[in-house]
Design brief:
Structural class: mainly alpha
Distance between the termini: 32 Å
Number of helices: 19
Order of helices and strands: HHEEHHHHHHHHHHHHHHHHH
């Protein structure tokens, strides 16, 4: 049955999402319930179509349009695209379900879900990009359509944060465009081929172009020095928007880096060059800096944002080592961090929605009023720290082993040391919230009164993602096999 999936199915989630989004935004609905039903249907169908494509063993190729000779937009299935598409579609459905309750306390739900559906479709389509030209177009569309999610409340802070997000994102995109122009002018089609499609060695200009491309895509992933939009955008965006900005959209930047380094240029051309050295240095600086600033931050959602800055650079660090074991750890951490960070932001949103408390120092005793929410928060916090047998322990183990196995002398000890310090800081900025929530100081007088849990539409997505975040550490077999198979294609 799965062999019968047509190539057109690659385009179907994008078309359905755009059509559903426009219907939600332009049609005057009698009830918000109708908007929720349509949105849920589109998200569920997108996930079902994506799952069918991912289960199909045959490669699907779908030419879209041709601009000029050698410049064609095309969709193509491969192992990496399937992994990211399935993750994006699933997490988008979970966060969207939670948004049905959260956004009922906000204004302009129709506008939010219109944009939410369109961005989800663009992200899904980006996973099937068959060459750099196609991915770049979709990457730019993702920036333009996701920026209004930050802007949604239309407050002064939201407008400023959205502009900052846009400027950083467009700046990063222009950096990648330089590399694309350089390599395309040399006659390279820049198709996505495992191991790289560029021919010939890289000269000084070529290495500079690759570094700028890495830096450009890493802007979306929040790597220093292009990380500034993250801690600004998250506190002003709604909790569902913050969840997908952190858990999914940052991974679009990771996917761009993956495609550039491992499918266009080739790791063999970069291993041992100044590009690899500079990239490793930036990732380690970001891991430590993000963790330290998260530890010092009192605003809850901003603390989560700094955590994202740190944790996504775990992934970039693994990719920068260009070692198969570290690569497996990076791929695993993409999945685990998405599940964990979406849960953390949804839990933070539930607390803000029900209590109005936005600072860590205001959360004493919150576990008594919101036990399910705080247990989900606590369990995924333990996961993100990397405490066995949770999932992030597996990914961080592979990252550390990969760093120890690399041939770069300093990185062999500095990499694991930075990861360890960051894990300790992660425990400091996450577990303190859980401890304070469940075991408040007896002198604390301003405790929440009675139960104030969110409804099932928020609790179910948080519970499902929490179960996966913990369970994939106990039973990592299928995902680990997929990551190892992907590494086998590239090394």
């Amino acid at each position: 049955m799965t062999n019968a999936v047509p190539a057109f199915a690659l385009l179907l989630p994008l078309l359905l999402s755009v059509a559903g989004g426009l219907a939600v935004g332009l049609v005057k609905w009698k009830s918000l319930r109708h908007i929720h039903c349509l949105t849920a249907a589109v998200l569920a169908v997108d996930l079902a179509v994506t799952l069918a494509v991912c289960l199909s063993p045959a490669q699907r190729v779908l030419p879209l349009f041709t601009v000029t000779e050698g410049l064609q937009a095309v969709f193509r299935t491969d192992t990496l695209g399937k992994l990211f598409a399935l993750l994006f579609s699933f997490v988008w459905l979970m966060a969207g379900t939670a948004a049905f309750e959260y956004m009922s306390h906000e204004q302009d739900e129709g506008r939010f879900f219109c944009l939410y559906l369109i961005v989800g479709g663009v992200l899904n389509a980006a996973c099937w990009a068959g060459n750099f030209f196609t991915y770049y177009i979709l990457f730019e569309l993702m920036t333009l359509t996701s920026m209004p999610l930050v802007l949604h409340s239309l407050s002064h802070e939201a407008v400023m944060a959205a502009l900052k997000y846009l400027f950083y994102s467009m700046g990063g995109a222009f950096l990648t465009l330089f590399g694309f122009f350089l390599f395309a002018s040399q006659g390279n089609g820049m198709d996505f081929v495992p191991g790289g499609s560029l021919t010939g060695a890289l000269d000084g200009m070529g290495l500079t172009a690759v570094f700028l491309m890495i830096l450009g895509f890493s802007t979306k992933a929040g790597m220093f020095p292009m990380h500034g939009w993250l801690p600004t955008a998250h506190p002003v965006a709604s909790a569902p928007a913050s969840a997908v900005l952190s858990g999914v959209i940052t991974k679009a930047g990771v996917l761009g880096v993956l495609r550039t380094v491992y499918y266009v240029v080739g790791p063999d051309k970069l291993r041992g060059t100044w590009v690899q050295t500079a990239w490793i240095a930036l990732t380690l600086v970001t891991v430590f800096m993000g963790s330290m600033l998260a530890y010092k931050e009192d605003v809850l959602k901003k603390r989560m944002a700094w955590s994202t800055v740190s944790q996504v650079s775990y992934v970039l660090f693994g990719l920068s080592l260009m070692h198969p074991v570290a690569f497996v750890g990076a791929i695993l951490h993409v999945v685990f961090h998405s599940l964990v960070k979406d849960t953390l932001f949804l839990a933070a949103g539930a607390v803000i929605m029900k209590t109005g408390r936005t600072r860590v120092t205001e959360l004493a005793g919150i576990g008594k009023a919101m036990p399910v929410t705080m247990w989900c928060f606590t369990l995924v916090s333990i996961t993100l720290i990397g405490i066995p047998p949770t999932s992030a322990f597996v990914s961080k183990w592979y990252l550390a082993v990969g760093a120890l196995a690399t041939e770069i002398p300093v990185v062999r000890w500095l990499g694991p040391a930075v990861l360890l310090v960051s894990a300790l800081l992660t425990a400091g900025y996450l577990l303190t919230i859980a401890i304070q929530g469940f075991l408040p100081d007896k002198s604390e007088q301003d405790l929440p009164q009675g139960k104030c849990e969110p409804g099932w539409r928020m609790l179910v997505p948080m519970g499902v993602m929490t179960a996966l975040a913990v369970g994939l550490g106990v039973w990592p077999g299928p995902l680990l096999d997929a990551a190892n198979a992907l590494a086998g294609l590239l090394f």
